[in-house]
Fold:
Amino acid sequence: MRAELVNRREDIQALQGRWNELALNDPRDGFFRTFQWYSSWIHHIRTDAEPFVIVVRDEAGVIVGLAPLCRMSYRDHGFRLIGVSSAGREVVSGDFLDYLSVVGRRQELLDSIMAFLWEVRSEWDILIAGELSEGGDLDRTVECFAAKQGLPIRRQEERICPYIELPSDFENYLRTLSPKMRYEIRRDTRELLEKRGAKVLVHSNAAQMGENLETLIQLHLAHWQRVSEPGTLGRPGFGDFLREVCTAPPPSAAIRLYVLEYEGKPAAALLAFWFGENALFYQTGWDPDSPVARMSPGMVLVAQSIRDAIEGGLRYFDFLRGDEPYKCRLTKSSRKTVTLLVARSFLAKEYLRVARLKDSVKRLLTDNGVAEPVS
Structure:
């Protein structure tokens, strides 16, 4: 295998076709590894980031693997470091990030990428392998890489990611829930759609996305502004990022935007991505001032999107990161992601030392019942 670096924005476009083919090799988690996700993120969210895409070819020159990385400034605890990171980790909740490979040569491919990263180590202070599947191939490979090179490593940001393994029909799914939850979903759905005359519109093509994405964004912001928080969709560049992903998605993906309308006005919205065998629950929003807000219009949309995923023949419904109570009421199954930091330079090693010290202080304060100081 032969690895090479592609680090100019104008050059990554040529990789698009093969990049997306490799992402499809993981029909459950490949969506956040597609070219479109990477390209939109680097153009709208982290405009300061430089492509750092490692391409691996076989003996015949065919691309057999790819690491969708970027190079950017990493700042934390007063340190400023040059990091090579999984793209889409920051700001945008891209979960289960990974390096792409053909089937059957994965470990060989991962070892080749890690060897190349060591060859170009003067380009980075810290390697950030973000939002990896805990205990997965890349998690183990990065751990072995750090041990082989004698580099300190830090595991952080362990996140719970609830999911549903979808049954054959929606009624079978409802039977997995508690009687109270099952009753509430049926009651609120009946009250909103049958008695109140609300309706659910499902938008799934690019022409419908522009105006309706703006509806989602406004509903999302309305909820968070109520609690004096900016909300994810209010971050700079996020609207443009989302519009690009939804109007020009990967060829193998489908976008489903649900809008619940009451008396001609949107009361709630939900955005889901379908990829391979998985439905990815990405973002929601609802109007806290809507006359039907107390009837859980957001939960009605979640139930509708689960029903659609089942009827669409998908195997999983992934809620992505976050163990919010409402997710835990809808499923008891979950996976974990973790972020690994590998320090190469002196400053990066000092950064990890300071981070470990802060962890120790935090644990000490927690064990002694002292509130953690606000930083």
About this structure: The mean pLDDT is 92. The chain is about 40% helix and 30% strand.
